[in-house]
Amino acid sequence: MSFSLEEKTFIIESYFRNAEKINNVWSYSTHKCFEEFRVEFPMRVVDYTQFIECLTRSVKLFRETGSLKRKVGSGPPLKRTADVVNAAQEIMDNEPQTSLRQLSRQMQLSVSTCRDILKTDLHLYPYRISVVPELLPPDLPKRLQFCEWFRNVLENNEVVLNKCFFTDEAWFHMTGYVNSQNMRIWSSTNPHVFVETSLHPQKIGVWSAFSGRKVIGPIFFDGNINGIRYRTDILHPFLEQLHDDELSEGYFQQDGATPHSTRETLNLLQEFYDDRIISRNSNIPWPPRSCDLTPCDFFLWPYIKNRIFTRPVQNMDDLKERITASINHLNNSPEILQNVVTGMKKRINLCYNEQGGPVQHLI
User: Fold this and answer.
1) Is residue 103 within 8 Å of residue 326, measured between CB atoms?
2) C-alpha–C-alpha distance, residues 276 and 282, integer Å
3) How far is the C-alpha of 283 from the C-alpha of 265, rounded, in Å?
4) Domain ranges for the chain
5) Which of 36, 5, 6 is nearest to 18 (CA)?
6) In three state form, how does the secondary structure of the chain look?
7) How would you list the strands of the sheet with 215-221, edge to edge?
8) Strand partners, 253
9) CA atoms lying within 13 Å on the CB side of residue 44
10) Residue 179, pLDDT above cutoff 70
11) Which of 155-169, 221-235, 312-326, 338-352 has the lowest mean pLDDT?
């Protein structure tokens, strides 16, 4: 597993930032460094052992040279002439999906030399294929309206996000999720290519609620959720876990799924939240197809999946235990929750500046 210069730089900064001097001896926490890395790069699937190997090499190199670049003369001379670079440019312009090994065969150069040409000379980077929702033209003014409301709320009460809950459901599959690790498209900017994939039948539904203070859940469910099941199996257990200030001052967000927006469901929520409901058919409408703005989608689900699928899942009970352990870990890490809230504010501001447009490519 290779790490980019940006990732290595963050690792070094985190490693020394979390150091403590105890009895005149410096102590370094690789665990804190690892956790901060996963928060900063939530979509990056990282193996702990490989992370530590990269950390060890990077720290050693940095201490010896004051840089993360290779020592001068530490490798063989490169064969990256202007003609070779131009030839590689032509190949990648015509076929941006060309892999390093394919490029190596075509140009009769080593894989490492081809990698240096693409990254150092052409400034191209391998982007994963992402599964993203399509924004429709009517969505943009709705997203802008929500961002304006959100900014106004924060202007008057900066800590309100500690009492607001952003909720969502997700399906977790026994075999993990879409494996896009081995497919790249080389480009100077992220092309945001995506593919559709079918769902695996062995799965469990998970509902959670995220705030800057805590994560409530997981609440597991099987099969389809209708309005009655949503209120009985999910909302009632959730409401029982709220503090008084969360009920009197906080907001409740949910997407526009039909069970969420029935009259009976909204009446139940209004008993506790009055007019502080962010949802379809409520006073504060939640914009459709806006998973890039809610913490569950842009952080919580990728974070949990990165933790639980580092090794094969044995059975459904094992899957549930791993999901529960991951959420418990978040509840014991208040700094992570606050970092996510800060990230949400950034996304809202970017969306506002983009007049409701997508923000993933700007993060």
Assistant:
1) no
2) 9
3) 14
4) 5-65, 82-123, 139-182+189-362
5) 36
6) CCCCHHHHHHHHHHHHHCCEEECCEEECCHHHHHHHHHHHCCCCCCCHHHHHHHHHHHHHHHHHHCCCCCCCCCCCCCCCCHHHHHHHHHHHHHCCCCCHHHHHHHHCCCHHHHHHHHHHHCCCEEECCCCCCCCCCCHHHHHHHHHHHHHHHHHHCHHHHHCCEEEEEEEEECCCCCCCCCCCEEECCCCCCCCCCCCCCCEEEEEEEECCCCEEEEEEECCCCCHHHHHHHHHHHHHCCCCHHHHHHCCEECCCCHHHCCHHHHHHHHHHHCCCEECCCCCECCCCCCHHHCHHHHHHHHHHHHHHCCCCCCCHHHHHHHHHHHHHHHHCCHHHHHHHHHHHHHHHHHHHHCCCCCCHHHC
7) 215-221, 203-210, 165-173, 252-253, 277-278
8) 166, 278
9) 20
10) no
11) 155-169
With cut-offs at 50, 70 and 90, classify the pLDDT of residue 178: very low
* Beta strand 165-173 pairing with 185-187: unpaired
Least confident of 88-102, 192-206, 283-297, 311-325: 192-206
**Residue 244 C-alpha from the chain's centroid:** 31
pLDDT, position 148: 93
Distances (CA, A) of 245 to 126, 163, 213, 331: 46, 7, 12, 18
Inform me whether the pLDDT recorded for 70 exceeds 50. yes
* 219 phi/psi in degrees, rounded to 5: -110, 115
Residue appearing with tokens 């002439």? 81
Q: Which CATH number fits domain 139-182+189-362: 3.30.450.40, 3.40.190.10, 3.90.650.10, 3.30.420.10?
A: 3.30.420.10
What is the pLDDT at residue 128? 63
What is the largest distance, in Å, between two alpha-carbon atoms of the chain? 72
Q: pTM higher than 0.85, yes or no?
A: no
Distance CA 259, CA 281 (A): 12
Q: 197 and 178 in contact (C-beta within 8 Å)?
A: yes
